[in-house]
């Protein structure tokens, strides 16, 4: 009997030691709640470092933890790293939850490709902002003396798609300050960040709500009426989507110097998209730009600038989709209802908000470069992104067909 009691006590001691072994986590790891999780709705992991972080460590863990959440399809709460008294910091975390839930449901229902591989990336710190963002913020009094301002660019493997919050190849600006002896991020800007947050609090929809939205978003419809062979009017230049894709793959990450560029703070997405279309209509060298070959009186650009229809998200759409007389000088194509009807070289435009439940203007343009994975090319930031990562956005779609330029 005494031997049995001794063994029982020893077992309890070992069990207690095992349960307490997770308290001393190395820096950069996360604490998981000891709750049983279902395969769908999961309790979040909470990131808590085991020692005070430096400014750079705070920034690095901010991205590293989010990237782990992204590839693991499991939300990690990084609120420890942020000044959570401000809505501009709370909303991005809700957006991250929305992104993770969207990706997990898309993967569960096999609606489209979802990236789960983590690729290497590098953070390069810089002394100054590369555009007019600082002057813009200063003119509006957006600056506190007790904050440290940090500029940096994140780069990765060429041709890879990374999570939207990394904004590969775009310059980030963060402000940090010490709160209670801990470095906290008080502000984070990057090209496109305004598309992922609103002035009103974001709300995480239930899984049932999001599932219903996704089923509508990915519904399979018949191909567009004029997909495939298109009857062309005289003097029309047909659209070759694969040429547009070729241009996008070449110049997404490194801009074409033959055209002017708009700084990321203002947004280069529609300028880049129009370049892809222009190449898809058959042009492709410097003399063509100078002659405005395959451009129109309203849709044109060069080294000195471009027209509103060329470089504005809304004005491009209004120009491309307007009703006009047959044979009139313009760009022609058709609006389609879902991403499943979009051809390679087709256009996606997005705006913040749930599936067709918003009054905001469309603010971003992208080009479909790979139909099987729904890989998209974009500028501002100058990188690739998967359609499955367009969280908390509404989208519209357009297949270009031909151009009449004279």
From TrEMBL:
Keyword Signal, does the record have it?
A: yes
Coiled-coil stretches: none
- Which Pfam families does the UniProt entry name for this protein? Amidase_6
The Putative amidase domain sits at 239-370
Q: Which domain of life is it from?
A: Bacteria
Signal peptide: which range, if any?
1-21
Q: Which UniProt keywords apply?
A: Signal
Q: Which InterPro entries match?
A: Amidase_6
Q: What is this protein called?
A: Putative amidase domain-containing protein
Which species is this UniProt entry from?
Formimonas warabiya
């Amino acid at each position: 009997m005494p031997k049995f009691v001794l063994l029982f006590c020893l077992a309890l001691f070992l069990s207690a030691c095992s349960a307490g072994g997770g308290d001393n986590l190395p820096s950069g790891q996360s604490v998981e709640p000891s709750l049983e999780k279902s395969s769908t709705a999961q309790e979040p992991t909470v990131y808590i470092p085991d020692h005070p972080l430096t400014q750079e460590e705070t920034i690095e863990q901010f991205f590293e933890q989010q990237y782990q959440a992204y590839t693991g399809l499991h939300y990690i709460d990084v609120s420890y790293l942020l000044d959570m008294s401000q809505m501009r910091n709370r909303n991005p975390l809700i957006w991250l939850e929305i992104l993770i839930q969207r990706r997990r449901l898309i993967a569960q229902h096999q609606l489209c490709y979802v990236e789960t591989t983590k690729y290497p990336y590098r953070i390069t710190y810089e002394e100054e902002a590369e555009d007019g963002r600082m002057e813009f913020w200063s003119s509006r009094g957006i600056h506190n003396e007790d904050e440290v301002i940090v500029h940096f660019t994140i780069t990765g493997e060429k041709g890879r798609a990374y999570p939207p919050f990394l904004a590969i190849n775009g310059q980030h600006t963060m402000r940090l300050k010490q709160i209670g002896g801990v470095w906290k991020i008080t502000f984070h800007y990057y090209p496109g960040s305004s598309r992922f947050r609103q002035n009103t609090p974001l709300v995480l929809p239930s899984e049932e709500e999001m599932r219903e939205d996704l089923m509508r978003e990915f519904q399979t419809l018949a191909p567009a009426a004029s997909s495939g062979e298109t009857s062309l009017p005289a003097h029309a230049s047909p659209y070759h989507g694969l040429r547009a894709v070729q241009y996008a793959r070449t110049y997404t990450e490194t801009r074409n110097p033959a055209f002017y560029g708009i700084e990321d703070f203002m947004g280069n997405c529609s300028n880049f998209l129009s370049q892809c279309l222009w190449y898809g209509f058959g042009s492709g060298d410097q003399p063509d730009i100078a002659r405005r070959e395959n451009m129109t009186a309203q849709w044109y650009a060069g080294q000195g600038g471009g027209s509103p229809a060329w470089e504005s998200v809304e004005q491009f759409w209004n120009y491309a989709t307007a009703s006009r007389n047959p044979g009139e000088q313009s760009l022609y194509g058709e609006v389609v209802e879902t991403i499943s009807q979009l051809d390679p070289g087709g256009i996606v435009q997005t705006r913040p908000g749930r599936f067709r439940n918003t009054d905001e203007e469309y603010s971003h343009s992208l080009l479909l470069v790979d139909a099987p994975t729904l890989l998209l090319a974009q500028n501002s930031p100058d990188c690739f992104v998967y359609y499955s990562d367009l969280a908390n956005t509404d989208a519209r779609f357009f297949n270009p067909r031909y151009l009449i330029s004279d």
